[in-house]
Every structure is written in C-alpha cells, then in structure tokens.
Amino acid sequence: MPCWIALHISITTEPGQAVPQSAAAQWAQDPAAVQRLLASMALGFTPRVALVDEAVLMDVTGSLRLFGGLARLAERLEQQVRQFFEENQAAAHITHAQAATSLIALGRLRLRLCLRLAGQNSPGAHTKTRVADLPMHTLSAARPHLDVLERIGCRTWDDLLRLPRDGVARRFGAELLQALDRARGRTPDDYEWQVLPEHFEEKLELNALVTHAPALMAGVERLLVHLHAWLLGRQSGLCALKLTWHLDPRRDVPPTGELDIRTAQPAQDLRHVARLIAEHLAQQKLPAPVHSLSLRSLVTELLADSAAATRSLLMEAHRQHAGEGGAVELIERLSARLGDAQVQAWQPGEDHRPEQMQRWVNARLAMKSIAGSQRPLRARGLKRLKNKASEAPPASRTEALYPTWLLPEPLKLGTSGNSPVYQGKLTRLTGPQRLEAAEWLLAGSDTAPAAGMCEKPWTFRDYFIYRSQQGGLLWIYSERLGATPQGASQRAWYLHGFFA
Amino acid sequence: MLSPTIAARPLPDFANVWRAGELGSASLQTVATGYAALDGVLPGGGWPQGALVEVLQPQAGLHEWGLIAQALAAVQAEAPAQLTVLVGAPYLPFGPALGARQLNMARVLSIHGKPGDAPSLLWATREALQCHDVHCVLAWLPDARSAHLRRLQIAAHAHNKLLFVFRPPRAQHESSPAPLRLLLEGTVQEAGNLLVHVLKRRGPPLAAPVLLDTRPARLSALLAASRERARQKREELAPVLLPSRVSLPVTSPESPIHALLDRIAHLDHH
Lengths: 500, 270
Known about the structure:
The complex is a heterodimer. Chain A is of the alpha+beta class. Chain A has helices spanning 23-29, 31-42, 64-67, 70-87, 102-118, 146-151, 157-162, 165-172, 174-183, 217-234, 271-282, 306-310, 313-322, 327-338, 367-370, 382-387, 439-442, 485-489, and strands spanning 4-12, 49-52, 55-59, 91-99, 201-210, 236-247, 256-267, 290-302, 343-348, 358-362, 405-416, 419-421, 427-437, 459-467, 473-479, 493-499. Chain A folds into three domains: 4-183; 201-330, Dna Ligase, domain 1; 405-499, no CATH class. Chain A is 33% helix and 27% strand. Chain A is elongated, with a radius of gyration of 35 Å. Chain B has helices at residues 4-8, 36-41, 64-78, 95-100, 118-130, 146-159, 217-237, 243-246, 256-269; strands spanning 30-31, 47-48, 51-56, 83-87, 92-93, 108-111, 134-140, 162-167, 180-186, 194-200, 210-212. Chain B has an eight-stranded mixed β-sheet with strand order 6-4-7-8-3-9-10-11, with helices on both faces. A two-stranded antiparallel sheet of chain B has the order 1-2.
C-alpha cells in the first residue's frame, strides 16, 4: 500500500538573538529556500520527493521497511530536521501528515496548518480526519472555484464526489476531476521529482565587498549549511572541497583565488570542516576585495548503509569515532594552523647510524597509523617500497644504552686540549663505542645518490658518554682519527644526544 | 565562648576535605610514578590526573624522560590507542632508547611551533588536551605566563588529562596555578642521579629533596663498570697508597670489573 508524507516547515527566530547576516535570519524571509533544504534532507529517506506549493511531498512506500516503519521514519526525519535547524540557531516548526495518496496527505497537512493557525492545536484530534470530511480549500485544484463551490453547498471533498461527474467537468473543468481521481488513487501521481546534483556547487554573492580573508567565514558558513543539507540528502560524507573566492574584476589581479580542504575521514558534521577553512583563511591575504564565493564538493564518500538508515550502534560508533575531538581532527587542525611540517609522528628506520634509526615524519601523511588502524601506512623511500612493499614495518630496535634525546644535527663542540667542552669541562665516563657505516651500508640509504658521492659518504665515529658539570650525561662522538683528511690533523668532537 | 570539648572533638572525615597538615589524597586520581620514594611524597601517591604538573629544570632536555617515562609507559599500556603529545620538545626524542623504556613510539605525536611563536604552542597544548584520543601532554613552555598556565590547568582538569609543563627555574618565583610543582636538579651520587625538590604540593612542605635513580639498569651498570675500571686504573698507578686493593689481580674472574661486565651481558640477554 502506498504511503505518502506531506511536510511543511516554518522558521522562527527569536528577535533578540537573530544576527542579521546569519542563515537563520535569511530563512525567516525566504520560505522557499527552507523548503528546498527540507527537500534535500527528505531525499535521504526516499528518492521520490516533490515540492508542491508550500509543502514537501515524499513517497516513502519503498523505504518503510528499511527505516522500521512509518512512525520511526517520521520521527527520525523530524529529529534530523529539527537538529539541523537548531545547529543554525533557528527554531523550526515542522508539521507533517501522512496518507495513502499525495493529495490526501497534502489536504490533511493543510487542514492541520489551518487548525494550528486558528489556535486549536489539539494533537490527535485531527489526525484521523476522514478523507470525505476534508474541506474543499485543501485541494489545490478546487481553489479557483471555491466561491462557486461554497454557494452550491460543496464544503467537503465528499460533497464534490457526490455531484455528477459530467456536470462537474462541464462547470469546473477537467482538472478538478483529475485531481479528485488522483486523490482517490485512481490515476497515478506524476510529479517532478527532486534530484540532488552529483556534485555540490553553489555560488554566493556577498552583501558587501570583503577585504579581510577571515571575514569570508560568514559567507562560507552559509554555503556550508546548504552543503550539509546536500550531504544529508545524499547520505554521504565530505572528503574534499574547493572554496573559490571571486575578486573584484576592476583590480589588476587574477580573477579568483581558491583553497582546497581535505579531511582524512568523510565528515557529515561540517563543524570540523568549518574550523579547517577558518584556519586556512586566517593565513590568506586577499589581493583585492571579494564580491562572491563559491563552494564545490570535490570528493564525497557514501556513508549509506543500513546502519546509517536505522541509526544502529554501528553508526553511532562511527560518528563518535569521526566526531569532534578525535585524533585525526586534532592532527588536521594543528597542521592547518602550524603547517604540516610542524606536526610529526615517529617511524622506525633500519640503519645503524643513530640519525637514520628513526624518522619524524609529517603526521598528516602517516595519519592512518596514528588514527588507530591496525595496519600502519608507511611513507618510505621508493627503493624500499619496491623491494618490500607488502612486508611488515621494520621492528623498531630498542637499546637502553642510547640517549633519550637526539640532536637534529650533531653540534660541533669546542675543544680544550684533546677533549671536548660543552658548557664547561666534561668528564668522560665510558667509551669509545665504535660505529662504522661504509659504502655498502650506504648503498640502500636515501641520503646517498647511487653514483655520486654525497658530502659525508662514510661514517666512522667513536661514541663516548661524558658528564657535564650540571650532572647531565652527554652522548658525544669524535670523527675517527685518520678516517677523513681533516680527522688526521685534528680530532673533531660532536654532541649528538642527551641521556635524560 | 567556645567550649574546650568542641575543639577537642575530632573533625568528621570528609572525602573532599583536605587538611593542610596532611597529604591530600582522598579524591585524587593518580598514576604511579614508578619510583616508590617519589610516590611517597606526592599527594595521592603519584602523578595527579587532570591537573597541571609544573616541572622546573635548569635546562630543557636534561631529566624529563627519566622522571616520567615509567608512568607514561604504564598509561600507554593501559590505553594503547591513546596518543601522547609532545609540544615544543627541545630535541628529537630518540625512539630506540625510549622503546627500551617501554614507550610505544608509534603513539607519540610531536608538535613544534614556528620559531618565536609561543602563543601557537599554548594553543596546540590546549587543543591536544581537548582531544579525547589523547591521554597525556608534555609541553615545554619556557615563555608561558601564569595566566596561560591557568588556562592549561583548567583544560587539563576539564578533560582529565595528564599534563606536564617544563619550564626554566627562573619561574620558581612566579605564582603558578599548578597544584604540583617540582624542581629538578642533577647530581652525581652512587645512589641516584636526580634530586627532586617538591616546591608545592597539597600537603606540608617537603624539606629534603627526593633522590631518584632514573637511569635504565643497563646504563647504570655500564657506568658503574667504567667507574670501577677508572678506580682500578687509579689504584694501579698509586699502589702504595692503597695496598689492600692490589692483592686482587685484575685478570682474575673475581675482579669487580668482570662481575659488572657479566652483569651487563646478563641484562643484555634479559
């Protein structure tokens, strides 16, 4: 049995808190935009959604089983819509009615709206209104003839149905009869179904020229609201988007500037995306005033599964994982403000030289392993990738006799006599520990080009542990005597780490 | 006028009341430091969870890991998916050595600020504290002021995270919102290498510093062996002064050097 839902929404904003430029204030003046947003969200529940006059009609016949029945579907839809508008500081009044055909659902919705306007808001009393008792004005096709119908005593649909068909057709035209047939399910409904585009793309003219990049956020947020509704309708999560701003054409600068934002996990809740955009915009300098913005979704990922539809625990867990405050979002936010190179994660390396034993790499690239997935993703040298692409990551070696801090670059120390000096005289405790890395060891390393010799081709070092006057232990090496031409003449000492 | 019997009656024991004469412990969630001597002087018997621990030391990078690594390893073992975040670390943490202290380096995130950009480090610290996948934040904030630390303390408290902030000792004379303040001092003693002065805690002031041996066993053994060898060398050079020691030949397997070297080898295979 077919099942239709008719929805109507009205937005009210509290006069005190409405910001003039906010989305909520715009909606209060533009019911059509709100209706379109509602239709986008309704598309997440069924592909058969139509805009008819002031209402949104959805044919949910095919979706009832997936969502666990009409009551649950309606409840979930209403909750989603309410939450969507609440996030944007707007209070939504949603009215819905259901019936076996679209026109009856619409008629019931209109009756309900009328009753609400009249102040007789007693829920339950009018939900079971008989189709025959629906007043004439709830049928769109009858609206041009309301006066005449009233005068001949037709007040309800039933009254009209009792009249002879050919007389009605002669007097009021065929449309009224057709509408009645559709309302009774005798002829099929054909609406222009709403379709969401494959990619979200929307342009927004700004109210005023903007010269300061962070001030673009107000416009971006309005676009993101629409994007959010689009994502809900497509049951997708956003992975990448492109934000373009159009500069004042009278200036001698490129006409547009743009920004790509990517997230590691598909996001439906766009607050994180908004924060990322804000971080990037804060670093932008606008060469000329901006008059409009456009937003385009580049990559989206389908989140739709039965879990998403029925809001099972799986989906909740997914949401929580992707939600505000996860490790991935932390890394993305930090990288956005500080720069990718400033946020680092650790990776082990296979080498004997201490500086090659580990790498601190860009955390955004190594995100998969950090975000808690079980198979770590490694960014490695090409050669190594070829040789052992599928192998497990190198087991990190542990060694208690190494220092806990390593200097990024060995620090050349001054000498006093034949021993090194660092913040005062040093006392040698242990050593030497010899380290050699010659030609064949270096062949596979990233630092040595295959044919050419790099600056320091060989490593011959003697490591010592010294104690400084502050009581700290230092890891100091000397280039081995005679290994390099300079080493033969004088011994060079380097500080390489601290035992903390 | 107060009657003397009322004053003499013991106060009822409330869980949330801390008497200034005792160590505050009742309502505190703590993580054991791994050192019994230090646990004994800290309120609650360990590092306080959800509070700022301020550590002052003469030079960044001297004693951090020895002090904290054991507690960190325990926390990581408890929640292997959680991250440890380092903010503004003075040098590169060296994975192999920290791995030997049972730290899981794959779960460590290191954040650097742009040079001379102290506010971004503070921001990063707060962001990390607010992230629910982070359980511990170590921050090196030499330029932080008391007001900044207060915000960090509030964030750590609100999100119940372990937070260590390392600062230079000149901060000693500034007021601090941290409930626990420590001053570290390196020392050269047989029994340990780190003196911990407790500057501030919920409890009576601590007069004497706590001496800790924070080095891993193998490193201590190696240092002891070389100390022993140096002493023998000295004694060989001056056999007249200490004749009793020379009676034991250096090559004999009973000599202390051999014993110590055996110990290192044993630790190695352990």
